Amino acid sequence: MTESAIISDPEISRRVLAELSRRGASTAIDDFGTGYSSLAQLKRLAVRQLKIDKSFILKLEQQSDDRIIVHSTIELGHNLGLEVVAEGVETDAARALLVELGCDYLQGYGISRPCPRPPWPSGSPPIRLACANPCVPPRSRHHDPARHRLMARRISRWGRRLALGATALLAAAALVTPVQAGSRLLGTGGVTQIEGAAGGGLSPWGVLAGTASDTEVAVTVAASEAWLNDYGLRVRGVGVNWHDRVALSYARQRLTLDTLGGVLEQEIYGVKLRLFGDPLYHPWGSWSLGVQHKRLDQGQALARAVGAEATQGNDLYLAGSKLFFDAVAGRNLLANLTLRSTRANQGGLLGFGGDRDSGRSLVAEGSLGLFLTPAWAVGVEYRQKPDNLGFAEEQAWQDVFTALFLTRHLSLTGAWLDLGDIAGLKNQRGGYLSLQLAL
Amino acid sequence: MYPISTRGYLAALLLACALSGCAGAKPQPAPTLYQQLGGEQGIHAIVEDFAYRLADDPELVAFFANTNIDYFVGSLADYLCVVSDGPCVYRGAPMDKAHQHMGIHEADFNRLVDALQATLLDQPISASARNQLLKRLAAQHAAVMRYQ
To answer: Which of A338, A347, B17, B129 has the maximal Cβ count within 10 Å?
Structure first.
């Protein structure tokens, strides 16, 4: 049915479409977003599918505007209960990106050449439809892996929100009751770094989370935000320290691409084992071995499009922390050194390995924190990173920070970050704030 | 404006002056930690405040159930005096023997250090003196924990 027919007599068109639907035909709005197709049609006509015009799809990888339009249209369609089809899918990257965005059906030369019209079963009503487009045989809603992934993600997201909420409530309860969070000196567990482990802002340290000693357990919950020139980073993390020996952590990073458009999300599962020592009492300080398993949850297509080899990876690190008493102007200085083996691009947010270097790199991270008072530290951090991707250079991360340990249960960290170039956008600098609750 | 050579000379003089303490006065020996802590009176105040904190901590006070508190307080004052280079004699047992088989956990040790730091923060002493004393006592951790 052409657009001019609908325009010339909208009422008859509406009735014809309704009748067709009643007889079991599947109806779709073609070339949505161009020509006469309007939002009003979505409301008026009894259609089941919305087909996004190929002009929005063909340059999806390059054009952030197109990504935003397509993303929003898919959401719009889904919210109205429609299936969304993308036309003109010609590359693997576009295909992956559309699956990522939750598109239900894909069509285009990247999927399949035009297929012959299936023969009509005998005895079916004499409806003639034009098989005008190349098509993928429609998959059943119930066996659509993309839809299943989307649903699984939504369910797990709610699960995590519940878990985070429950932990936050517990932490709030601990704040108002005089529970001891642990007996180690204030600040000796650091804060929650952006990957969820105990450390500074950027690097994990050789100590474990909170202030738990050998007979105690500590739980930490942290929320951090960074505001960079072209990006925003949000981190939510939880950690458990068992007897100051083993710490488990989970963090979820969300990088919003304010300039490029879109969102990257990464999950990080961490384990840290304290090998020996103590930052205050042992001459060599406290040394720990850690693993961080990272998985890109959203933005896998982007990572692959920029040349990453994988969308998940494991970082292995050895970290040491030592407090030097009376080191500078009578104050105590906490020094940290971390050696990390990693393939991560921009910490994993741009995937793992790349066209320039696919193997592991050994990188060094370090920080110095001066305790001006036992509850207030200021310092600097530096984190070296691999440079695996040919498309954009990657530099070290660094920051200056100040951390206030208000009580054993509550700390507040502020920093000024300099994260270098990220995905081709120069000099990403900005503020950072992090709040940690411990019990 | 002085010519450049004169300015260089003045700078060198100033630097030499700063390094040597200037004015030709006799160099004062650096005060010992004992002096920085306020001598006998300072140590006495520290020990008294600290003993009250131990008594107020239900976990820590249990370790002193069978202790003669007067003896403990006197012995601790002597120990802190010696550790801070003061003119005293410590007659008690060495740290490992003094704490053996008390069942001290890291958590207990840490609580005690925290209490001591709180005590020191309440004294009219410098951050440097406070942290120097903590440093010297922290070094005893291995000895205290040796026979637990």
So the answer is: A338
pLDDT in tens, A70-102: 888 888 888 888 888 888 888 888 888 888 888
3-state class (DSSP) for residue A186: coil
Q: Cα–Cα distance between A191 and A287 in angstroms, integer? A: 17
Indicate the range of A118-127, A198-207, B49-58, B85-94 predicted with least confidence. Answer: A118-127
The CATH number linked to A66 is: 3.20.20.450
- Number of structural domains, chain B? 1
Question: Is residue B19 a part of any domain in this protein?
Answer: no
Axis crossing angle, helix B39-56 with helix B69-83, rounded to the nearest 10? 130
For residues A328 and A350, what is the distance between their CA atoms, to the nearest angstrom?
A: 39
In chain A, the residue whose alpha carbon lies closest to the alpha carbon of B135 is A325
CATH number at residue B139: 1.10.490.10
B98 to each of A266, B76, B78, how far by Cα in Å? 53, 12, 14
**CB-based burial, B11-46: b 16+ in 10 Å, e otherwise:** eeeeeeeeeeeeeeeeeeeeeebbebbbbeebbebb
* Inter-chain touch B127–A331, beta carbons under 8 Å: yes
User: Which residues in chain A have their CB less than 8 angstroms from residue B117's CB?
Assistant: 185, 374
A216 Cβ under 8 Å from any chain B Cβ: yes
Instruction: Please tell me the distance in Å from A250's CA to the nearest CA on chain B.
Output: 26
Mean pLDDT, rounded, for A410-429 = 95
Q: Which of residues 336-375 of A touch B (CB under 8 A)?
A: 373-374
| Residue B95 token pair | 């740290």
Query: With an 8 Å Cβ cutoff, are B135 and A281 in contact?
Result: no
Domain enclosing residue A49, as ranges: 3-138
Residue where a domain stops, chosen among A121, A138, A155: A138
Q: What ipTM did this prediction achieve?
A: 0.81
Q: Do A330 and B117 touch (CB under 8 A)?
A: no
Closest residue to B141, CB basis, from A184, A281, A330: A281
